[in-house]
Amino acid sequence: MDDILVTHRLRKEFGGLVAVNDVDFAIPRGAIVSLIGPNGAGKTTFFNMITGVYKPTSGRIIFDGEDITGKPPHAVTERGIGRTFQNIRLFQQMTAVENVLVGMHARLRGGILASILRTPRLKREEAQAREQARQLLAYCGLAGREADYARNLPYGDQRRLEVARALATQPKLLLLDEPTAGMNPQETLEFTGFIRRVRDERKLTVLLIEHDMKVVMGVSERISVLDYGEKISEGTPEQVRRDPRVIEAYLGSSAVAG
Amino acid sequence: MRRRPRLSAYEGFWQALGAAGVADARRRWEAKPLLLQRGLPPLVAAVLAVGIAWASGLPPSPALLVLLALSYALYLSPHRVRRWALPVTALSVAVAYPFYLEHLFALPVVKSFPSMDTMVVMAIFTMMALGLNMVVGYAGLLDLGYVAFYAIGAYVAAWLASDHFTQVDLRFGAIGEDTGVGGIHISIWLALVIAACVTAVAGVIIGLPTLRLRGDYLAIVTLGFGEILPQIARNGDQQGLGFNLTNGPQGINPVDPPGFGGWLADHLGLPANYLAEQGRYVNFTSLLYWTAIGLVLLTLFASIRLRDSRLGRAWIAIREDETAAAAMGVPLMRTKTWAYAAGAFFGGVAGAWFATFNQGVFADQFQFNISVFILCMVILGGMGNVWGVIVGAAFLTYLNTEGLGNIGGWLNENILPCKGGGTTGKAISNGCIDVPLLQFGIYGAIIVAVMVLRPQGLFPEARRKLEFETGVHDQPLQDLAR
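ok -> structure tokens follow
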């Protein structure tokens, strides 16, 4: 199968702590894949290495056939990986539409001189970008919210805006870091439906991080499980659910014994 | 915690009236047309103030009345008119300044309106404050060494338009007599552009190693650069450098006067040489002033355009959350370096024009305190808001050049037991205070007061206001800013 992202023995140490321990991992193109594990399993560290926030201690990351190991975040984003953050990191003091426009940064060309002179080409580009941003917001269910400051949006809408901003980077692979954290079951259900729709309509690949297994069972096609920085299981939701090592990691060894 | 609702003067007025037995006055007043409600109280207050002054032997000057009428009309005009009418009026008042300066009235306490020389300095510092605002206000990079750019701009202009480099003899579009000693003399306008570009490049060179740092560390390194460059200027002569780059403490002097030269003077009526103009209103200083106003307008224009551009958005995004900005595809180093370069560019323009205004460059002019002084202007006015920054810059420069001295004189004459002779180089002596000697204490006090009472500045940018209310979360997350 065609894999959009592959990691080879990816490793990250913080001092003596091995946060991610030689993880081999692959995401098939067009799939919704989840990375789960208990708190502190190294999921977010793994994520941050893929997106260039952390430099891996060793190992390689291949995205769409290109080695992106150690590339800075903006270069990774330019190549087509968009992400959201576990604790929402919107530009709180910018409007919804401005947040999305920042996401388009790498796709726009307007330079410093053109910006000052406001050339016809720049004007056209800006107008198009704003129109696209508006459409993207509407697509994510934020129509009519364009001029609101991000901080004034309700929690669920902030999550949606983060997705809209990530989509604005025109990703091939969308990374969502615990996107349903803090949502109630109803909102979670709606959100996972939305993720599936985004994947189908925009032909993306999605990697979800979750520590709540229930959330990912419904939406994921494949699941990998991390525990103490090591991949302990991988497969379809059904396989993972039955894997005794996963049950042990989540419920403790006594549950398996009993 | 709930805050106790504060009793406004407005509420208090009506409560006092109610207590005096006029119960429904407020209801009747608030039923009147809005224009009247807004318009009447200030009119009454102004008429009363002018009337009292007149009665006590101070006839109102025509200039004051015109000023009051103008402000009143602006105050009453609807928002959509005021939006453009206010800047246009402010600009016309500023441009016409040399013509009515002599007819202005005496001010209480600060005595006089700023002189023409002061106005030029104010315009130059406004340019610098606007430039620093791009770095500090837009991109959120604390720069404590902005004086370096000011110095570079001034020295480059001086090199390009003086007798300094006697080794070469180059004249290009320069005006004035050829003294025969040689040196580079190119047109001042070209020198201005080159100085600005060189300064921008210097901004990039200084920025590349420093902008990898964040917050406090960046501030300290910029502080270092702000000290290094003036030191080079002080020591950059034959003994210090083995090559006379800056002529050391003597400075480069004189710098060519500006002017448009023959062709433009003949065909467009522009002044051929600013120094040669000796008119009552149109003279060297007022021409420098008008040109400086033009340069301020250019800076302002670029500031606003940049703020609303793709680059400006990226700057604000970095200010708010560097990590998120990088994850959205904003290249941190490149974007920050652009902020530095843009800020440096206008610092360079200001420096170059300052050299022209002074007709010389002297190493002692570029002290660390200038960096702090410009930063104060930005903070006082309101980081990120160009209008606030302009007000802050004009106000503080006025205080620095004339205001403090005048205030001190007034204090000594009217309040303090100061008997003739005045101060003797000490801050306090003979019952007199030498206020300008205390200037840094005073600026410090102003900044402390602003920080305590109004940390977002006098005229905050809407966004900044929000930031001060809610705080920003910018946890460093990256291994390295790359």
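Chain A is about 40% helix and 25% strand.
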